[in-house]
Amino acid sequence: MVTVPITRSIAIDSDEMVESFTRSSGPGGQHVNTTDSAVMLRFDLANSPSLPEAVKHRLAVLAGSRLTREGVVVLRSEGSRSQLLNRQEVRDRLVEMIREATVVPKKRKPTRPTKGSQTRRMEGKAIRGAVKRDRGRPSHD
C-alpha cells in the first residue's frame, strides 16, 4: 500500500485509485493496435477516507462533468504512446486537482463605490445620453 502525498497533512492511498487500460484512438500503426496505452483512472471521491469533507465538496465542483452520479472522479489520458507516461500524467492531474481543492477561497468583503467613481459614472452617462439625444431628427421650430 503506497500513499500519494497531496499536501503536508493529506495523502491518499494508491488503492483508492483504480486504473484501467484501453487502446488509444487515432493513428499509430501496427504496434498501436496491440497496445493498451490509454489510461482511465477512477477515484471514488464520495467514499474516500483520506479527504476532509470540505475538500471533497470543492473537488466535486472542480471535477464538474468528470464526476459521475456515484461520486467517482474519472480521468483519462491517451496523449502519449507509452502506458507508463499516461499513467503518470493522469495521476499528476488527479493530485493537482486535489491540491487545488485544498485551497480555501477567500471570503469577499462587500464594498461600496466611492463618491468620485459614482460622479464620474453619472457624468459619463449624461454625456452619452446627450450624444444619443442629438442623433434624433432636428426640431422644426
Walk me through what this model shows.
By secondary structure, this protein is of the alpha+beta class. The chain has a single domain, classed as 2-Layer Sandwich (Double Stranded RNA Binding Domain). It is built from three helices and five strands. The strands form two sheets. A three-stranded antiparallel sheet has the order 3-4-5, covered by helices on one side. A two-stranded antiparallel sheet has the order 1-2. β1 (3-5) and β2 (11-13) form a beta hairpin. α1 packs across α2. The longest helix is centred in the middle third of the chain and has 20 residues, at 83-102. It is elongated, with a radius of gyration of 27 Å. The termini are far apart. The mean pLDDT is 86.
Q: Number of helical runs? A: 3
- Biggest beta sheet attributes: 3 strands, antiparallel
Structural class: alpha+beta
- Gyration radius (Cα, Å) is 27 Å
Residue ranges: pLDDT <50 for 5 or more in a row?
A: none
CATH class: Alpha Beta
User: Which range does the strand content fall in?
Assistant: 15-25%
> How is the CATH topology named?
Double Stranded RNA Binding Domain
Query: Quaternary status of these chains?
Result: single chain
Strand ordering within the main sheet:
3-4-5
Written as H for each helix and E for each strand, in order along the chain, the element string is: EEEEHEHH
Question: Rough shape?
Answer: elongated
Report the helical percentage.
25-40%
